[in-house]
C-alpha cells in the first residue's frame, strides 16, 4: 500500500512539474511564437523530414522486454541511393540517440547538408534514429494506456536498461554488425550508465558523446531552477495537492516570480533551457519548438535531477525507502554507476561547449576525471568555447566544427 502511495505521489509531482513548464511556455512574458504549441509531424519522421529530401527511410517498431513500443527510423543509404558502401562493402550502422525533452526529429531539423543523420548517410553509413519511451512517436505499449499513470511508471534507468538494449539488439540482428553510437545530452547519460556496467559493449564499436552528462552540480539551466521548486515536498507547501489548479492564479503568480529571477531569462526560452547558443538558425528553432520539444519527458528529467543535483552522484533510481531499495537492488541505497568501469580501450569521443547550461564544463571535468585512466589513444576530447547545448544538434556550423570530427573518429575505429 505504501509503495502504491509513493508511486502515485511521484507521478503527481512530475505531472505538476510538466504543467509548470507548459505554463511557463504559455506566459505572455516568454518571447516565442504560436508554434511553441507542439505540432508533431502527422505522417511520421521519415515522411516529414527524410524522404522529402530524396533519401530512403524506413519506419520501424522495436518492442522492449517490458512492452514499450519504440519508434525507430532507418536511413539505409545516402541521397538518391548514394553515399558509399559500394563494391560489396557493407555500410556501417550508426545509432543516433536524442537528448532530454526531445525526440529523434532533433537530428533532422536543419537542411540535409547541416543535419547529422543525413550527413552520415551521405558519407556511407547506415543511419538509425532512436525515440525513447514517452516521446511522441514512442508513446505506445502492448497493453498500457499512455493516458494512465501506469504507462509512465519508469525512470531514465529503464531507458538505459530496456530501451537502449532493445534498439541496439535489433540493429545488430538486422545488420550482423557492431554499431557506432552518437548520443546527445540524455543520450550520453544512458550510454555511460550502460557501458559502465559492461553492457552493450559486445555490439558497439565506438561512441561519440555530444554535451556529455553524468553530473549536474554546476548546471545553470532554467529547468534546474524549476526543478528545485517542484519536488513533491515543495508542491504540497506551495499549492496544496487537493486544490491544485494548473491554470489558476497561484501558478501564474509563481511563474511570474520565477521569471523575475535575474538568473532566468524568460524572454529567451531556448537560452533559458540550454545556455547561450552561438549558431542557431531562427527557422530551425521554430521548427524545434513545433516538432521536437517533448514536455512529457520532464518526468525523466526531474528524477535525474533528484539524484545528480540533490544527491551529487550518478545512481539508479531511489525508491525513497530503504525497504523498497532492498527489494529492487538487494541493498538499502540505490547502486551507483561507476563510470571508471568503462573498459579503458573502448573508443570514446566527447565534445562539449563552454556556454552549455546543462553540460557545464565543470561537470564535464568531473566526468573526464572518472576516465583519467582511459587509454590515451581511445579517448578524444573536443572543447568548443562558444557552443551551448543546442548548438551540437542544430548549429549551422556543427558540420564543420563537430560532425566532420565524428566521422573521422568513426573511420579510425572501423
TrEMBL record:
GO MF, any single term: hydrolase activity, acting on ester bonds
Domain Partial AB-hydrolase lipase: 49-110
Sorted UniProt keywords: Hydrolase, Lipid degradation, Lipid metabolism, Signal
Pfam families recorded: Abhydro_lipase
InterPro entries noted in UniProt: AB_hydrolase_fold (IPR029058), AB_hydrolase_lipase (IPR006693), Lipase_euk (IPR025483)
Membrane-crossing segments per the record: none
Gene3D superfamilies: alpha/beta hydrolase
Signal peptide: 1-23
GO biological process: lipid catabolic process
Active site residues according to the UniProt entry: 185, 356, 389
Cross-referenced PANTHER family: LYSOSOMAL ACID LIPASE-RELATED
Family: Belongs to the AB hydrolase superfamily. Lipase family.
This protein's name: Lipase
Organism: Centaurea solstitialis (yellow star-thistle)
Lineage of producing organism: Eukaryota, Viridiplantae, Streptophyta, Embryophyta, Tracheophyta
Amino acid at each position: 500500500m505504501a509503495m502504491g502511495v509513493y508511486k502515485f505521489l511521484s507521478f503527481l509531482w512530475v505531472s505538476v512539474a510538466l504543467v509548470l513548464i507548459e505554463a511557463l511556455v504559455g506566459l505572455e512574458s516568454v518571447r516565442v511564437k504560436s508554434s511553441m504549441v507542439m505540432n508533431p509531424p502527422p505522417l511520421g519522421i521519415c515522411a516529414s523530414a527524410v524522404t522529402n529530401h530524396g533519401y530512403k527511410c524506413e519506419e520501424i517498431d522495436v518492442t522492449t522486454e517490458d512492452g514499450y513500443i519504440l519508434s525507430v527510423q532507418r536511413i539505409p543509404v545516402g541521397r538518391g541511393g548514394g553515399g558509399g558502401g559500394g563494391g560489396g562493402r557493407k555500410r556501417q550502422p550508426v545509432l543516433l540517440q536524442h537528448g532530454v525533452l526531445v525526440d529523434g526529429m532533433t537530428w533532422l531539423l536543419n537542411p540535409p547538408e547541416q543535419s547529422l543523420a543525413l550527413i552520415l548517410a551521405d558519407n556511407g553509413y547506415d543511419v538509425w534514429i532512436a525515440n525513447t519511451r514517452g516521446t511522441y512517436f514512442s508513446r505506445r505499449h502492448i497493453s498500457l494506456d499512455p493516458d494512465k499513470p501506469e504507462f509512465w511508471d519508469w525512470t531514465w534507468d529503464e531507458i538505459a536498461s530496456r530501451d537502449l538494449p532493445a534498439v541496439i539488439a535489433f540493429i545488430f540482428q538486422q545488420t550482423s554488425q557492431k554499431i557506432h553510437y552518437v548520443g546527445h545530452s540524455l543520450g550520453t547519460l544512458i550510454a555511460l550508465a550502460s557501458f559502465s556496467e559492461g553492457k552493450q559493449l559486445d555490439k558497439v564499436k565506438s561512441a561519440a558523446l555530444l554535451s556529455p552528462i553524468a553530473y549536474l552540480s554546476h548546471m545553470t539551466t532554467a529547468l534546474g531552477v524549476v526543478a528545485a521548486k517542484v519536488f513533491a515536498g515543495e508542491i504540497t507547501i506551495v499549492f496544496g495537492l487537493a486544490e491544485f489548479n494548473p491554470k489558476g492564479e497561484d501558478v501564474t503568480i509563481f511563474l511570474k516570480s520565477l521569471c523575475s529571477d535575474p538568473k532566468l531569462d524568460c524572454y529567451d526560452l531556448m537560452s533559458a533551457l540550454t545556455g547561450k547558443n552561438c549558431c542557431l538558425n531562427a527557422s530551425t528553432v521554430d521548427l524545434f519548438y513545433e516538432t521536437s520539444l517533448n514536455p512529457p519527458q520532464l518526468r525523466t528529467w526531474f528524477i535525474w535531477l533528484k539524484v545528480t543535483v540533490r544527491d551529487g552522484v550518478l545512481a539508479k533510481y531511489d525508491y525513497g525507502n530503504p525497504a523498497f531499495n532492498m527489494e529492487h537492488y538487494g541493498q538499502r541505497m540505490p547502486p551507483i554507476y561507476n563510470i571508471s568501469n568503462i573498459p579503458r580501450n573502448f573508443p570514446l569521443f566527447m565534445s562539449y561547449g563552454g556556454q552549455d547550461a546543462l553540460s557545464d564544463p565543470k561537470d564535464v571535468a568531473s566526468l573526464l576525471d572518472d576516465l583519467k585512466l582511459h587509454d590515451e589513444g581511445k579517448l578524444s576530447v573536443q572543447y568548443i568555447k562558444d557552443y551551448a547545448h543546442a548548438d551540437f544538434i542544430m548549429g549551422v556550423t556543427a558540420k564543420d566544427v563537430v560532425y566532420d570530427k565524428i566521422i573521422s573518429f568513426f573511420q579510425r575505429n572501423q
